[in-house]
TrEMBL record:
The protein's name: Large ribosomal subunit protein uL13
Quaternary context: Part of the 50S ribosomal subunit.
InterPro entries in the cross-refs: Ribosomal_uL13 (IPR005822), Ribosomal_uL13_bac-type (IPR005823), Ribosomal_uL13_CS (IPR023563), Ribosomal_uL13_sf (IPR036899)
PROSITE patterns given in the database record: RIBOSOMAL_L13
GO MF term list: mRNA binding; structural constituent of ribosome
UniProt key word Magnesium: no
Highest rank taxon of the organism: Bacteria
Organism: uncultured Thermomicrobiales bacterium
Transmembrane segments: none
Gene label: rplM
Amino acid sequence: MERRTFSPRKSDVERNWYIVDAEGKTLGRLASIIAATLRGKNSPQFAPHVDVGDFVIVINAEKVVVTGKKETQHMYYRHSGYPSGLRAIPLREMRQRHPERIIEAAVRGMLPHNVLGEQQLKKLKVYKGPRHPHAGQQPQDLSIDRIERAGAMRHAD
């Protein structure tokens, strides 16, 4: 009997839409589940070289939780390309200006650092507040019980 390796095609991929409320969720734990969903790791037809992931909508990005002293010590860097053009912005200031970028940066770091990763990142939609324009896609709640259990255990101490 001849066995062949299965490789999904674009026509085989069926994308779903999921929604996540970031309020009260820990940033890293939330980002790892979002990254796995964007990559398609929860799909039975997962292949590391093909984009088989789903779309993820994140709401209430401004209410995501970080642990420890990250609020003041974690910095976001960008460079203008000119001499002495490096800018460092602390997480607290980034939360006030652009809270969506906090989640986008965390998820970007967990995706492949190549063209495939950029393609997968385009399926992430992050919004500052509770409103989003994707109601027509009928998003389902993303099962993130692990995050909620871990948060509940931390708050019980």
